[in-house]
Amino acid sequence: MVNVLNPHSLPEDGKEALYRLISNGTDDDECLPSIVEIIKDRHQGDIIMICTDGIYSADQQRPGKNTKGIWIKYEPAMLIFFERLREYFQKNLYYDQTTAEFFLDKYLEEMRHELHDDATIGLLITKEAARYQYDKKPVRDEKHTSTQL
């Protein structure tokens, strides 16, 4: 997982204080968008998750360092997301909008009691990623030999 957005708050007096916001003020610097460029992975494909800080926020994550390198400990909500995404690819024959929406709804329902903030999530799965996941499946029904993308 790669976090491509910069944190927008800093700890101040034991709380998170915003230092970047969007408003109708006249200071153009506070409304500059984040521009992200992603080089597509043509072999394994890309999965892009966009979420609000109720699910994941780089603001509260503090990287650690040990002999193996720099690491970030993910919040439980993200670890569960990764596990449910793996199950989604294992259990579904087709990866389409309907099955993805069902997966996201099920995940948010499971996390409902753990989330302490707004929880909005979006998921983009490229055709290459769907094909890669489909091709990794050890056993397929002989009647279904191609993915419906």
For the structure shown, list the relevant keywords.
two-stranded antiparallel sheet; alpha+beta; disordered C terminus; 3 helices; 149 residues; two-stranded antiparallel ribbon
Which sequence of strands runs across the widest sheet? 1-2
Mean pLDDT: 78
Number of DSSP strand runs? 6
Helicity range: 25-40%
Q: What assembly state would you assign to the polypeptide chains in this entry?
A: single chain
Could you tell me the strand content as a percent range?
15-25%
Q: What can be said about the biggest beta sheet?
A: 2 strands, antiparallel
| SS-derived structural category | alpha+beta
User: What string, H for helix and E for strand, traces the elements in order?
Assistant: EEEEEHHEH
Can you tell me the residue ranges where pLDDT is under 50 for at least 5 consecutive residues?
144-149
End-to-end CA span: 24 Å
Shape by Cα distribution: globular
The gyration radius over C-alpha positions equals 19 Å
Count of alpha and pi helical runs: 3
Written overview of the protein:
- This protein is 28% helix and 16% strand.
- The chain is of the alpha+beta class and 149 residues long.
- It has a domain at 43-136.
- The strands form three sheets. It has a two-stranded antiparallel ribbon.
- β1 and β2 (15-18) form a beta hairpin.
- α1 runs antiparallel to α2.
- The longest helix has 16 residues, at 76-91.
- It is globular.
